[in-house]
Specification:
This protein is mainly beta. The protein contains one helix and eleven strands. It has one domain: PCu(A)C copper chaperone (Immunoglobulin-like). Strands 1, 2, 3, 4, 5, 6, 7, 8, 9, 10 and 11 form an eleven-stranded mixed sheet that branches. A hairpin with a 3-residue loop joins strand 10 and strand 11. The chain is globular.
């Protein structure tokens, strides 16, 4: 059975599709010259988790992410993962530099924010509140979308 839609209904449905597509891309935050793109984390049953995102710096000077906090965790540490003697090692870092005109990716197996002492398991579809503090840009509250366990961040919500 073929159904014909009037031009008005076609326009309405096209508009709905565009709004849905734009909301997928709209998961970003702006603070001065810093843009935080697609913050996310993974569902977990453990008391630790990682928060990931891309940080863009439109300024002509570097900035640094110097602190992160979350009401969902006892503490948040900035970490990097490095391979040493064939073993992946996570180490805290004092700050994450965002060079001028560049994108710095916080991702699994690299730089990330470590959520330590989670107060409850993170469930897929939830949002986790984070507060990020940058050396120059200041402080901003964001929400990270909780993706499925083992997600790699390859798709956007």
């Amino acid at each position: 059975m073929t159904m014909k839609l009037s031009p008005i209904w076609r326009a309405f449905l096209a508009g709905c599709t565009l709004m849905a597509a734009s909301s997928v891309q709209a998961h970003e935050y702006k603070l001065g010259a810093i843009t935080i793109v697609h913050p996310w984390t993974r569902a977990t049953a453990a008391r630790v988790g990682g928060a990931f995102m891309t940080l863009e710096n439109a300024a002509r000077v570097p900035d640094r992410l110097i602190k992160a906090t979350s009401p969902a965790a006892e503490r948040v540490e900035l970490h990097e993962t490095k391979i040493e003697s064939g073993t992946a090692m996570m180490r805290p870092v004092k700050a994450i530099e965002i060079k001028p005109g560049t994108r710095t990716e916080l991702k699994p197996g690299g730089l990330h924010a470590m959520l330590i002492g989670l107060k409850h398991p993170l469930k897929e579809g939830e949002r986790v509140k984070l507060t990020l503090t940058f050396e120059k840009a200041g402080t901003i509250d964001i929400e990270a979308i909780v993706d499925k366990p083992g997600a790699t961040g390859g798709h956007h919500h």
